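Thread amino acids onto this structure.
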């Protein structure tokens, strides 16, 4: 057995920053409208659990995503814990103005590495998206807000297939070098990533921008979410998006599971010796609220099965069974 200290199952206390996206990426995909006060309580619970960053909501058109039509109220009324970054997805200048007014800590800007996906999803070419996001970035700088750019389809496009690494890095260069973004998220939008690919792209990014905040965002569409997280850690990544209960999804992967599950990733990483800074029991309690709020079961296996050492009671007749077994052994 490999017992090297840099083995992916031997975290040796290395800090991994867990970033919650369920309150935005997860809830926006739900048919049910989660009441504002329940959203606020959910964010507060995630803060208390110790998530490093929470993408609270999105400042998008209420007609486009009615599930998040209460963005201002939620962001303004949450209880802010010291050290937690409260982020919001911002698609345009109007959204940026709303986010500033609602006291967001960070703006998360989104476009795709794939021209086809960008056109289908945002109704713009990548060049048009970059120009629009540059204007939002300028406004954020004026307001002294941090900016993160999420690059969708960084590990593959559901309509184009593989996206060349050079293409992904070229857009990252425009975000970091030209725009001055403080962070980049490489997104596996429909769960096309695999560990070797994750390791290669993470290594390439880190080689060029060792001091830029890098986040990896995986979906568990094809069951490789945790494997991809471990591959990213092995290549130098230390920030990961995840979604409470594993909720979320993408219209280009209908019927698929959603984002990697926050409590599953924390559970696994802590068993491997990594320091997530998260109170897992509180995180699980928060996840247990979800089915009642969204109206259906969630993919979380930790909620269903419990933690590894959540033991079960002995059978009611265990003493009698043992005595009979011992009696047979005596003969």
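Threaded sequence (331 positions):
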């Amino acid at each position: 057995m490999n017992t090297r200290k840099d083995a992916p199952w031997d975290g040796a206390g290395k800090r991994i920053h867990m970033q919650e996206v369920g309150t935005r990426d997860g809830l926006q995909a739900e048919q049910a409208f989660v009441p504002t006060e329940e959203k606020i309580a959910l964010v507060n619970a995630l803060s208390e659990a110790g998530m490093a960053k929470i993408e609270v909501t999105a400042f998008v058109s209420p007609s486009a995503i009615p599930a998040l039509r209460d963005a201002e109220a939620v962001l303004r009324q949450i209880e802010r814990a010291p050290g937690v970054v409260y982020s919001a997805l911002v698609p345009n200048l109007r959204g940026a103005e709303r986010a500033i007014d609602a006291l967001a800590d960070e703006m998360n800007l989104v476009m795709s590495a794939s021209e086809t996906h960008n056109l289908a999803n945002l109704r713009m070419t990548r060049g048009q998206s970059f120009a629009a996001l540059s204007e939002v970035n300028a406004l954020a700088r004026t307001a002294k807000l941090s900016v993160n750019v999420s690059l969708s389809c960084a590990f593959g496009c559901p309509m184009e297939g593989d996206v060349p690494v050079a293409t992904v890095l070229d857009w990252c260069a425009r975000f970091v070098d030209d725009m001055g973004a403080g962070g980049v998220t490489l997104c596996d939008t429909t769960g096309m990533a695999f560990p070797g690919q994750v390791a290669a792209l993470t290594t390439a990014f880190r080689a060029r921008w060792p001091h830029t905040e890098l986040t990896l965002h995986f979906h568990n569409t094809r069951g490789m979410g945790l494997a991809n997280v471990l591959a990213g850690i092995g290549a130098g990544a230390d920030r990961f998006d995840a979604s409470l209960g594993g909720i979320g999804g993408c219209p280009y992967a209908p019927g698929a599971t959603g984002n990697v599950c926050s409590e599953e990733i924390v559970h696994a990483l802590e068993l491997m010796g990594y320091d997530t800074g998260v109170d897992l029991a509180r995180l699980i309690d928060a996840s247990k609220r979800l089915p009642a709020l969204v109206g259906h079961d969630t993919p979380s296996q930790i909620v269903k099965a419990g933690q590894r050492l959540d033991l079960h009671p002995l059978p009611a007749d265990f003493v009698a069974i043992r005595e009979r077994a011992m009696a047979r052994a005596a003969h």
